[in-house]
Amino acid sequence: MVAHRASVAESVGGHLDGIHDLGGKQGFGHVELDASSKEGRHIHGFNQRWHAAVFTIINSLFVNGAAANTDHFRHSVERIDPINYLSDGYYGRWLGGAETMLVEAGLLTQDEVNSRVLNRGYELHETVAARPSAAPDLFSAEERNFQPTAQRLVAIEPRFGLGDKVTARSLGGAGHTRLPNYVRDVPGQVVALHGAWVFPDANAHGKGEDPKHLYTVRYQGADLWGPNAESSVVLNIDLFEPYLSEASLG
Amino acid sequence: MVAHRASVAESVGGHLDGIHDLGGKQGFGHVELDASSKEGRHIHGFNQRWHAAVFTIINSLFVNGAAANTDHFRHSVERIDPINYLSDGYYGRWLGGAETMLVEAGLLTQDEVNSRVLNRGYELHETVAARPSAAPDLFSAEERNFQPTAQRLVAIEPRFGLGDKVTARSLGGAGHTRLPNYVRDVPGQVVALHGAWVFPDANAHGKGEDPKHLYTVRYQGADLWGPNAESSVVLNIDLFEPYLSEASLG
Amino acid sequence: MSEKSAAIRAEALESLLVEKGLLDTARIDDVLTLYNERVGPMNGAMLVAKAWRDAHFKQQLLADGTAAIAQFSFEGGQVDKLVVVENTAEVHNVVVCTLCSCYPWAILGLPPKWYKDPAYRSRVVREPRAVLTDFGTHLPAEQEVRVWDSSAEVRYMVLPVQPKGWETLSEGELVNKITRDSMIGVEVLAEVAE
Amino acid sequence: MSEKSAAIRAEALESLLVEKGLLDTARIDDVLTLYNERVGPMNGAMLVAKAWRDAHFKQQLLADGTAAIAQFSFEGGQVDKLVVVENTAEVHNVVVCTLCSCYPWAILGLPPKWYKDPAYRSRVVREPRAVLTDFGTHLPAEQEVRVWDSSAEVRYMVLPVQPKGWETLSEGELVNKITRDSMIGVEVLAEVAE
After folding, report:
1. Residue A86: C-alpha distances to residues A22, B122, B140, C167 (Å)
2. Cα(A22)–Cα(C180) distance, integer angstroms
3. Does residue C97 sit in the same domain as residue C32?
4. Residue contact B19–A27, C-beta within 8 A
5. Chains that touch B (3 or more CB pairs under 8 A)
6. Is the pLDDT of residue C113 over 70?
7. CATH code assigned at D132
8. Can you give the pLDDT at residue A143?
9. C–D contact (≥3 CB pairs within 8 Å)?
């Protein structure tokens, strides 16, 4: 259906716990290798011109102001319909995110997009990934000045040090986060400090850069996956300080 | 594609953490009411004859031995491809599960099914939900004697009592379970004891009925969903004793 | 898989099973008749109406639902254990099955499509108040919401609050007014009889 | 959405943006040229080859990858912080991004399709040894597997073990043998040079 889907109110979900949070999920089958893995490093670059077009359109969002920052863009991809998220592939997901941002920023209307795709032979039964929100305008024009998501200097000392035992907990609500479900509520250990970085949970939603200290936290496979986990596996993941608290005993 | 998909080895997943575990996931939009909700109770029964056919086929699995028990059947539905799980609807999922069980039990071959659907005009581009496993035969013919999944008398006393604080943890591995992700590692409280029941985690996999005590455990909304949870919400869920341990302090 | 393809696939499976003697087409007609005519929300409505009119039955139904319904010999699927939860001014109950679509078939018939869809299953455990507004049901903030996730073989039914003005209706009249959705807990029955 | 439909939709969006002056078609050609010719795994391979031949550079690369690569002015996307993790006989490293598909573009070029697919993203954090067998890579049970989930802006590259027999090859020869997959950590380079 080309017609624009029902808008999704904020309460229906940003996507703190969306389909994109795939770590540890089961049922997706074996990895399907492509020629680039079978034949070595010599195959690279774009397979399809439209992939490069989508790539370029994404870059343009940061210039024309549709995307305020990388976190804002990532959140637009997380908001596409779960079935499309799983079916459309990487560039298809980016396309859905781009369309959402362009419509939400008022640079295109959904009607314009719909007429144009129909003119070009889009099939009516195909679902559409993009779901611009009814009340999306979190960012003012001034705020839509792209700054790379990156390290920032802050005066505040990091709360945790190397070797500290920590547990990550969801901040709750609905929105963008970089804390995947599979490490939540499981005890881990700080193995690296990376200084302070733009905080995606704030930056994606027009709440400023709000830089927070970033840590690499190490988890033991058996703590994450139970007694039947593969042996001698550790998992390292970069987590922002607001996700973390001292690990509870036991 | 009608062609049978690549079989999925056991290590790729039973589906302890499969797509079917939907509780608390975000991004699925608003509830779409149908006429039966808009127009009251007077509309009920089957909308389509093929729904009733699938319903009857499912019942027949327990007679012809393809399904050993309800847990075994539920697991077959959980093993369908994630995209099909989300796209095919309730009777479509049941159909996928039925096909898996019939092929795994050797009552039909995948080739028979494929030829028949093509003869009847099935479209080649349609994906297929059923994914019979390469090594599925967990059940002997004798074990495929349907017993309702139900309460059983056991001599063992329940480990927990009313009011006890408990935390549910994943048993790990890959397979059927009735412990959803969203309550794991969160403290709750026992509010009802239901006696001992057939344990789905064992029964689905040919490991016998292995009855375990069943409890209703109550969770506070804010403990599950964080500080932004809706106020004054409690969640009650029925959990088997092996999932539970004493809640850790703090 | 489109609806059309699913129908083709179901009919293909049906024809193969019939040829092999593993399925009798007549059974499909029996199933259609059973769920279209005898098993449906009117059974649950009858229980609710009786509970509203018979304090002793209501007490039985809430104390041990399984025993209370044994006398009725409902068809349509096992209910190994039935738990009936009562709505009051203080507490509103709502039922879901997040892992599949467990439902008290014998009492309420086939579940509605929305009950089996990802939107309801994913969201009602997390935001029940918001989800109920999709049904036009707005609960007072001070009323506690109790969600029941049917994760084992216990089946749940909600005993709705009887609206003001229905006290004079007979059990037979009530059965026609008590909706399926009120017994799942997504609807509050209207205070004014139509 | 089928591949064909996605292409139509992308081209429709492109044409609308060009008409409105929000996109220059020439930039698409630039992007194609950049990633097809100048940005790709040969950049990472050059770093690996150099590290194998230059102990000081290797030490720099492992201690502070970001500083070590600054001299090369790689194009193709920001790498705010690069962390290079070394494979040894005791430890094998493998990189993923479970939440999206974060990847060190400037060093390795565009990520392969499998890196972005749900199968790899979901499973490699849970069963890395099993997933590596999908690539024909079988790790000894006693070798520790370290998975790196790129959840923030730090980007990870694996420094593979140099196979026996490659010690006499020049850096230029090595660049043609070091595979992209070995720098993601899903492949162990063959001990015998082809």
Report:
1. 10, 23, 36, 52
2. 36
3. no
4. yes
5. A, C, D
6. yes
7. 3.90.330.10
8. 57
9. no
* Partner-chain contact A11 C127, CB within 8 Å: yes
Domains A1-136 and A151-246 share a fold: no
Residue D126, chain A, CB below 8 Å: the answer is yes
Q: Do C130 and A11 touch (CB under 8 A)?
A: yes
- Interface contact D123, partner B, CB < 8 A: yes
Decide if B100 contacts B88 (C-beta within 8 A). Answer: no
Of A15, A24, A172, the CB nearest to B225: A172
Query: Of these residues, D2, D5, D15, D97, which one is catalytic?
Result: D97
Q: Do C21 and C86 lie in a common domain?
A: no
Collapse the DSSP code of A234 into the 3-class scheme (helix H, G, I; strand E, B; otherwise coil) and give the result. strand
In one-letter notation, the amino acid at residue B172 is: G
Could you tell me if D52 and D104 lie in one domain? yes
**Chain A / chain C CB contacts < 8 angstroms:** 7
Is the pLDDT at B7 greater than 90, yes or no?
Answer: no
Q: Looking at the structure, tell me whether residues D71 and D115 fall in a common domain.
A: yes
Strands A165-168 and A244-246: antiparallel
Using the beta-carbon criterion (under 8 Å), do A13 and C123 form an inter-chain contact? yes
Q: How many domains does chain D have?
A: 2
Nearest one of A184, A84, A183 to A130, comparing CA atoms: A84
Flag whether pLDDT at C171 surpasses 70: yes
Q: Are residues C23 and C97 both part of a single domain? A: no
**Any idea which architecture A1-136 has in CATH?**
Orthogonal Bundle (1.10)
Helices (H) and strands (E) in chain D, counts: 11, 4
Angstrom distance (rounded) from CA A202 to CA A211: 9
pTM here is 0.90
With respect to residue C56, please indicate whether it lies within any of the assigned structural domains. Answer: yes
| Shortest distance, CA B125 to any CA of chain D (angstroms) | 10
pLDDT per residue as tens digits for the range A119-145: 998 877 777 666 666 544 456 555 555
Asked whether B183 and B224 are in contact (CB, 8 A), the reply is yes
Same structural domain, C32 and C44: no
**Which whole number is the average pLDDT over B13-24?**
82
Q: What is the pLDDT of residues C10-55, one digit of tens each?
A: 999 999 999 999 999 999 999 999 999 999 999 999 999 999 999 9
Report CB contact under 8 Å: D22, A107: yes
Q: Please report which helix (H) or strand (E) contains residue C136, including its range.
A: none
Chain A residues whose beta carbon lies within 8 Å of the beta carbon of residue D7 = 48, 50
- Burial bucket for residue B158 (CB in 10 Å: 0-12, 13-18, 19+): middle
* ipTM of predicted complex: 0.89
Closest listed residue to residue B98, CA positions, set B65, B73, B126: B73
The CATH class for the domain spanning A151-246 reads mainly beta
The reply to whether D127 touches chain B by the CB within 8 Å rule is yes
Cβ atoms of A132 and A108 closer than 8 Å = no
Per-residue confidence (pLDDT) for residue C175, from 0 to 100: 94
Computed over every residue of chain B, the mean pLDDT equals 84
**Structural domain of C138:** 40-184
Chains that touch D (3 or more CB pairs under 8 A): A, B
Whether chains C and A touch (3+ CB pairs under 8 A) is answered by yes
Domain coordinates of chain B in residue numbers?
Answer: 1-136, 151-246
If asked whether residues D26 and D73 sit together in one domain, one would say: no
Asked if residue C13 is part of any domain, the answer here is yes
Active-site residue flag, D100: yes
- Dihedral Cα D161, D166, D167, D172, nearest 10 deg: -100
Task: Say whether B25 and A17 touch across the interface (CB within 8 A).
Answer: yes
Residue C20 CB contacts under 8 Å (≥ 6 apart), including other chains: B107, B108
Percentage of chain B beyond pLDDT 70 is 82
Chain B residue closest in CA terms to C111 = B44
Q: Are residues C59 and C132 in the same domain?
A: yes
Residue D127 φ/ψ, nearest 5 degrees? -135, 60
What is the longest distance spanned by two Cα atoms in chain B?
63
Find which of A5, A10, A11, A84 to mutate to test the C interface (most C CBs within 10 Å of its CB). Answer: A11
